[in-house]
Design goal:
The protein has about 280 residues and is mainly beta. The chain is built from no helices and 20 strands.
């Protein structure tokens, strides 16, 4: 038997021999045990952004997470200390071979109301997958505006950037206490953003343009409209333009009616669609 060719594949070692006497290729399958593909533990990193608008947004109840991959799922305890406005990173060593990550679900064991803003999941050396709480869901076992479990899935692979310019016509145009999200409508359908917020930066200052980037968005094609939603905050915000870029497509929307965005319907609009 001549020297052979060997290669690891999954949990087995394939060894190919050339049998001169038989003029045949003989394939021997050898159980190799645990190899790198199934035996080595993988790294799963979860980053949790808790909404900071309200001090009641945080929780001390136990939160669990299930990560749904193309090949396997994994469930872990996420933790029990998520203060309002906090960013927490949790790293696990797991045996499961997830493949591409598509969805997550979160579950609480208590009635302490929790408002997660964004969850990112990074499996091994893949790019982080972003899950935005676009439907403004809260977790609790005992609250009228919450549920004990919530489900979030990635929307796609595109990146959308929003450039929002605050008016400088009045000192009151700015806002430091508004929670704002949007739905972008395109020829291929809609996609929903997370909260317009840059960590440790005062956004929405008079006359300034702030840029907000959202990855993992749906490919909407040619941009048609944008719908702004003020979901929390007593402040009113006055903007002049919103520039939306998704992939290579760009469209700028002008606030030609000088509409104010706010959750308080006595001060302005909580929903404003521009096309």
């Amino acid at each position: 038997v001549s020297s052979g060719i060997n290669a690891e594949y999954g949990g087995y070692l394939f060894v190919v021999f050339y049998c001169k006497e038989m003029k045949l290729l003989c394939l021997t399958l050898v159980l190799f045990g645990a190899t790198w593909a199934w035996g080595k533990q993988k790294t799963l990193k979860v980053t949790v952004y808790t909404e900071g608008h309200s001090e009641e947004a945080g929780t001390t109840d136990i939160i669990s997470i299930r990560v749904h991959g193309a090949s396997e799922d994994v469930e872990r305890i996420l933790g029990s200390d998520f203060p309002a406005g906090s960013v927490k990173e949790i790293t696990y060593n797991i045996d499961e071979n997830l493949g591409n990550v598509y969805c997550i679900d979160l579950e609480t064991d208590g009635d302490d109301w929790w408002w997660p803003r964004t969850i990112t999941v990074q499996y091994e050396n893949k790019d982080p997958v972003y899950f935005y709480n676009s439907f403004n869901q809260k977790l609790s076992t005992d609250a009228d505006d919450a549920a004990p479990a919530m489900w979030m899935c990635t929307q796609g692979t595109s990146t959308c950037t929003i450039e929002a310019t605050t008016s400088d016509e009045t000192d009151h145009a700015k806002s430091d206490n508004i929670v704002l999200m949007a739905t972008i409508y395109g020829a291929k359908g809609p996609t929903m953003t997370g909260v317009f917020d840059n960590q440790d930066i005062d956004d929405f200052e008079n006359g300034e343009t702030n840029t907000f980037q959202f990855v993992g968005m749906r490919n909407v094609g040619n941009i048609k409209c944008i719908a702004l939603r003020a979901i929390a905050g007593p402040d009113a915000w006055l903007f002049t333009t919103i520039k939306v870029t998704c992939g290579k497509k760009t469209k700028t929307f002008t606030n030609k009616y000088n509409a104010w965005m706010t959750e308080d319907s006595t001060q302005g609009l909580s929903y404003y669609k521009l096309c």
